[in-house]
Design a protein that fits this description.
Helix content: 25-40%
Strand order of the largest sheet: 7-6-5-8
Number of domains: 2
Structural class: alpha+beta
Radius of gyration: 21 Å
Strand content: 5-15%
CATH topology of the largest domain: paralog of FGE (formylglycine-generating enzyme)
CATH architecture of the largest domain: Alpha-Beta Complex
Largest sheet: 4 strands, mixed
CATH class of the largest domain: Alpha Beta
Order of helices and strands: HHHHHHEEEEHHHHEEEE
Number of strands: 8
Number of helices: 10
Amino acid sequence: MFELVAEDLHAVMGEVRERTFALVAHLDDERLNATLNPIMSPLSWDLGHMAAYEDLWLNHRAGGRELLREDLAALYDAFETPRAVRGDLEFLRGEELLEYMSTVRERALETPVGDGVLHELVIRHELQHTETMLQAMVLAGIAPPALHGPVTVDGSGLEMIEVPEGPFVLGTGPEGFAYDNERPRHTADTARFTIGRTPVTNATWQAFVEAGGYENEALWSPAGWAWRTENDVTGHAGGPPNAPVVHVSHHEAEAFARAHDARLPTEAEWEKAAPELEGVGAVWEWTSSPFTGYPGFTPHPYREYSEVFFGDRYRVLRGGSYATHPRVASNQFRNWDLPERRQLFAGVRITR
């Protein structure tokens, strides 16, 4: 399936692991092992989880060998151990953690690459988890020095471009690596719409705050207003005026759009317009779409990656962010989270 040979994939695995360690190099063991935020995992748990996932998919399922540490299977299973309890568990720490990660990797380098799909799965899994780890570090105020915010854009987020009505092809084709929720590729139709040429900037968001956007209940959905009230959310910490606003929830994004007689795009609209837009990849962009399977969806390689999250609870985000590795981000990649979440490197692009 891939033109990459085993040596290439092994090199990428090494580069990704070096990047992972570089992102936490400024932290001591106390910070690595602590629960930095109630909705996030301890960073050491994430590191152990990466290795356990690699051992499961490359060494056990692809290589046919016993797990290196069968006793760790439940500990590092994201469904067996939800985030709320991970900080209380006896997860691997310090030298024991590093030894486990190293030994798993030594075994993985002996596993036949085959078509490369499982190796690519493991590579991207680690890259996605490092973004989650960066979320935790930002929440705790201990982000790595090399992490800088989104680049500036030439616009306010209120300048619109027109996208004509008609069909287009949505999703990823059958060749190459993709997650199950990106397939099958299919034709979708949209009516004519306009969409922001850029994501909304901090300056534009600040004007929304100063105009009383957080006090005007009419702008918010019932769930959004309840979230705002219960959590005493009265505004948003800004950044450079001409950079995209980041760390906003879906509730806030919806309210901002309504304040400008607009709405959030559907993910079909977003994907259709993406090639014409500025600032794609600066921040994740909330859509109005619930996370569901495409027509003809088939879970692969396990239903827990996507299917168990389908339904009305989660909203889709598109585009990637400044904290997303380019190997993960594409115009077809579908991220998802709960509407109240603000830890994501997420902003907003409006649609009419």
